[in-house]
Design brief:
This protein is mainly alpha-helical and 972 residues long. The termini are far apart. It has helices at residues 2-37, 47-58, 64-74, 79-114, 120-132, 142-181, 185-190, 192-210, 222-252, 262-272, 292-315, 318-335, 341-354, 357-377, 390-410, 415-463, 470-485, 492-536, 542-558, 563-591, 596-615, 618-632, 647-651, 675-680, 701-713, 718-726, 822-860, 869-872, 878-889, 896-910, 919-931, 942-951, 956-969.
Length: 972
């Protein structure tokens, strides 16, 4: 038998070995199957992808057995991905546990609801105990049972309240019977029926209360209380009705006995003529006389006990004060009735001051302990969603235990309360233990994650030892730093251990980038020195500055630096260049100060125009506008006789050589004449310059040559010559000063015989003065830029020649005077804009006043109040105004139909809407006008139509329609 058993054991061991070999050999196949099952979680290259695939696999709700197998294999490989499986398994486990708990508490709730007599305390205890046990009260079926129990408890409480109210109603009914018994029996007879109905209604309500399904669940004291109230009410009601019936019988029969109610009996006696004896007030019993010696002895005894108590209390003797208080109470018990009021007040004050120190100390300490016990027990009874976290729970428990220690130091220990407090604290500490366990697990996971991140940074640094893209390298470093910062919390010791390793690995990864930054900083410092050299040169080279800035931008885009450091370098690089440009701007502004005299006149004229705008006088505004335009053309009187701002002074320069005039012609728009130029030129006005004066801008021979070319090449030049011959003779001119140099073309053959006209036809700001266009026929060869024009209009220097072909058109542009500075240009432009707005506003105001005067004159039939032609505007001619005056001055004579048609014509001419009731008439009039094509349209006869309306009688509707039409017509 032993041999067979040994053989069997050997066979079993061989089977186990075979099973182990089989399982070992099949493990790769199991991993492959699990990898296929999880969607490649085991073969994922990174932890993030592995966790993502596990998360996707869990979204399909796999079987718990499969999740357990995957968790077993994955927990040793990747704890981060395995944590998802562990949380899912824990969730399933909790769900199973909660289902069992829910079934258990659902049975208890069904048992409670099935009871005919439900105790409110049991229902409340069910909810409290279910929450403590972790039952899911927010999910079915417990949520439904919770609602049913709450409704049942509410019904019981409502029934209790009804029963109590009904008892009070019975008392009030009995009081009504009592009050009626103190009044006359006739008043009681009048209220008898209502009382009887109220008692019957009260009995019905009492029957409804007792018939309620929850009546058996009420406290046992409510049923006898309601029954006693019912019996008492019925007794009082029966006695009241019997006494009232007896009073009625006694009132009908003098021989009948009187009712037992004294008030009614006296009333009936008085009705029978009997004498009613008045009731004597009951005499108060006389207080017994006390011997003064006894009273004095009692007070002496109380004062002695009181003095002893006050002495012990003042000295702070707790036990002695307790004995003295007891002795004082004994004396008060014996002699308290003989003590006067002041002494009694002193006694009570001393007892309060003593306070029975021993009992008070115990009571106060126990009160503090009871509060601490309540707080400790309430830590786990907080409402759903307001539970304390682990750290908060730990701090709260520590604070409660410290407070308990302080309470024990000031009073006698209470072991019963300590036991309750310690049990509550231990129960709440389970939350802290679970939190600490979770914190430890998270810390271990965070540590592993940080170690893996350090290894990853080391591998990346070895791979990118020589980076080609420094921006991408910097971004990767920032990403590693963010990942390290967000890697989770670890303990101080662990952090102190890992931080040097991280610094070493991150420093090695950042070393190439820092080397490139140092080299970039050196290159930028060199460019800063080069920029300083460029800025220090007297002539700023724009091309070199642009090339240097492009080099800086390329360097900044290739090697990123810290934002603050890069900004400092950029400011240092930009400072010398900005200083050079500012110097150039200052020089340019300094060169532009030669025009300050002209700018000053324009500024003064602009200020005068603003003052006129503020005054609101149209004539002053227009005069100020004229003065400003004259100042813009350079016609403002100079402050000194030597200064001149006329046309020739604009072109005057300090150039002595005539050959440089053409070279400087293009700079005339940017340079301003100096004071020496102004003194060298004659100060004549442009308007009074004679036509025979030689043009200071171009030689006089040019115009004659071009004119002769035009007359020889084209026909039709005779009218122009005739007009020129008819021109009036020019007044004598003052003796001109010698001209040093002039603008224009000084070449032989291009001198003009005629002077340039002072003003040209209007043009826009910035248009060419001569109106010439480059292209065919322009300066230079025919058809090319710079060639002489075939039509004889001349080149840029030919400023005095006519701008049209054959001289048959006037000049296109007028001379705007010297170029303005920025401040003067802006001031005159804004002043003119404000003047235009002011004129428009004043015109609108005048228009509205004139229209109001017209309507007022029509209403009062007073032609003297009709505005003048100037007030009505250019749209109203004197003849129309005369017709209106005659229509208003005479009595109403126009027919209503004629006035209505005239109103419609006015609305059609003004293109304003017609009232709804007149739309049909307007359409008919439009059709009528279509048949009379020869008649003038309403837009031409609106003055006469308005006269017809004014000739009719005034009414509010017609006046409003006339106002709307004239408002638009007078503005045209």
């Amino acid at each position: 038998m032993c041999a067979g058993l040994c053989r069997r054991l050997r066979f079993l061991s061989s089977d186990n070995d075979l099973a182990q070999v089989t399982s070992t050999s099949s493990k790769p196949h199991d991993l492959q199957a699990l990898d296929t099952l999880t969607g490649g979680a085991f073969t994922a290259p990174t932890s993030g992808e592995r966790a993502a695939r596990i998360r996707d696999w869990l979204a399909g709700n796999p079987a718990p057995e499969q999740m357990q197998e995957v968790f077993k294999e994955l927990s040793g490989r990747d704890k981060g991905a395995a944590r998802l499986l562990r949380e899912k398994l824990d969730e399933l486990k909790r769900a199973k546990g909660q289902e069992a708990i829910a079934a258990e508490w659902a049975q208890k709730a069904e048992a409670l609801l099935g009871q005919s007599k439900l105790n409110i305390a049991d229902a409340l205890a069910w909810q409290r105990d279910a929450a403590k046990a972790g039952a899911p009260l927010s999910r079915e079926p417990l949520a439904g049972f919770k609602v049913q129990l709450a409704e049942r408890v509410k019904g019981i409480e409502d029934l209790q309240h009804r029963a109590q109210v009904h008892r009070e109603a019975a008392v009030l009914l009995a009081q009504r019977f009592e009050v009626l018994s103190t009044k006359g029996w006739q008043d009681a007879q009048a209220a008898e029926e209502s009382l009887r109905a109220d008692v019957t209604h009260w009995q019905q309500q009492a029957a409804d209360i007792t018939a309620d399904a929850n009546w058996t669940s009420l406290d046992a004291r409510f049923a006898p209380q309601l029954e006693s109230s019912k019996a008492q009410l019925l007794v009082v009601s029966d006695a009241f009705h019997a006494a009232l019936a007896q009073a009625q019988a006694a009132a009908a029969d003098p021989a009948a006995p009187l009712p037992p109610v004294p008030v009614w009996a006296d009333e009936l006696r008085a009705a029978r003529g009997e004498v009613v004896a008045p009731k004597a007030a009951p005499a108060k019993p006389a207080a017994p006389k006390v011997d003064p010696a006894v009273r004095a002895a009692a007070q002496d005894a109380v004062q002695a006990a009181l003095a002893k108590l006050e002495q012990e209390t003042a000295e702070g003797h707790g036990k002695a004060s307790a004995g003295a208080a007891a002795a004082l109470r004994a004396v008060l018990k014996e002699h308290g009735k003989l003590v006067d009021a002041p002494l009694e007040a002193r006694v009570h004050a001393a007892l309060v001051a003593a306070g029975e120190l021993e009992g008070w100390q115990r009571w106060s300490a126990d009160k503090v302990r009871e509060d601490l016990v309540a707080k400790a027990e309430g830590l786990l009874k907080r409402p759903e969603g307001q539970a304390l976290g682990g750290r908060k729970m730990q701090e709260t428990l520590r604070s409660l235990r410290d407070q308990w220690k302080q309470a024990d130091q000031g009073g006698v220990p209470n072991h019963a309360l300590w036991k309750r407090f310690d049990e509550a604290c231990n129960e709440a500490h389970k939350v802290v233990e679970a939190w600490l366990e979770k914190v430890r697990a998270d810390a271990a996971e965070h540590r592993a994650h940080r170690v893996a991140l350090i290894e990853e940074v080391k591998a990346w640094a070895a791979e990118h030892a020589t980076p080609s893209d420094l921006k991408a390298h910097n971004r990767a470093l920032h990403q590693f730093a963010d990942r390290w910062r967000d890697a989770g919390h670890v303990g101080e010791k662990v952090f102190a251990e890992l931080q040097p390793q991280w610094n070493e690995a991150f420093g090695a990864a950042r070393a190439p980038f820092e080397t490139a930054q140092k080299a970039s900083i050196e290159r930028r410092q060199a460019m800063i020195a080069e920029a300083a050299e460029l800025g220090a040169q007297p002539m700023l080279r724009i091309d070199a500055v642009k090339a240097l800035q492009q080099r800086w931008q390329a360097e900044a885009q290739s090697v990123p630096l810290d934002r603050r450091h890069e900004q400092k370098l950029w400011d240092a690089f930009r400072a010398p260049i900005d200083e050079a440009f500012n110097r150039k701007t200052a020089e340019r502004e300094k060169s532009a100060t030669a025009m300050s005299e002209h700018d000053r006149h324009v500024l003064e004229a602009s200020k005068a125009l603003d003052a006129a705008n503020a005054g609101g006088d149209v004539q002053k505004i227009r005069a100020a506008i004229a003065r400003l335009e004259a100042a813009l053309r350079g016609e403002a009187p100079p402050p000194a006789p030597a200064a001149s701002s006329d046309g020739p002074s604009v072109g005057a320069t300090e150039v002595v050589a005539p050959g440089q005039a053409a070279a400087e012609f293009g700079e005339s728009a940017e340079q301003a004449p100096g004071s020496s130029d102004a003194e060298a030129l004659p100060g004549t006005r442009a308007e009074s310059a004679p036509a025979a004066n030689p043009d200071l801008v171009a030689p006089a021979d040019g115009a004659d040559a071009s004119a002769r070319a035009d007359s020889a090449a084209h026909e039709g030049s005779e009218p122009a010559a005739a007009e020129e011959a008819k021109a009036p003779p020019a007044p004598p001119k003052p003796a001109p000063k010698p001209v040093v140099a002039v603008r224009g073309d000084d070449r032989p053959g291009n001198k003009k015989a005629e002077a340039a006209p002072a003003a040209r036809a209007g043009g826009r700001f910035g248009d060419r003065r001569d109106g010439a266009r480059p292209g065919p026929g322009g300066p230079g060869r025919p058809g090319e830029r710079g060639a002489p024009r075939a039509d004889g209009r001349g080149d840029r220097g030919d400023r005095g020649a006519p701008a049209g072909r054959f001289g048959d058109r006037p000049p296109r542009f007028e001379d705007r005077g010297p170029r303005l500075g920025d401040a003067a240009f802006r001031a005159q432009r804004e002043a003119l804009e404000r003047a235009d707005m002011a004129l428009r506003k004043l015109a609108a105001q005048a228009h509205g006043e004139a229209l109001t005067q017209v309507l007022g004159a029509w209403e009062q039939r007073d032609a003297s109040k009709l505005p003048s032609v100037q007030e009505l505007g250019r749209a109203v001619t004197p003849a129309v105004r005369t017709g209106w005056s005659q229509a208003i001055g005479s009595a109403p004579k126009a027919a209503p139909d004629e006035a209505a048609e005239a109103l419609l014509r006015l609305e059609m001419a003004a293109e304003v809407p017609t009232p709804a009731e007149q739309l049909d008439a307007r359409r008919a009039l439009q059709l009528k006008l279509l048949t009379k094509r020869g008649d003038p349209p309403p837009a031409q006869t609106w003055g006469q139509d308005a006269g017809k309306v004014l000739a009719a009688a005034h009414d509010a509707a017609s006046a409003r329609r006339l106002q709307n039409a004239l408002k638009a017509l007078l503005r045209k």
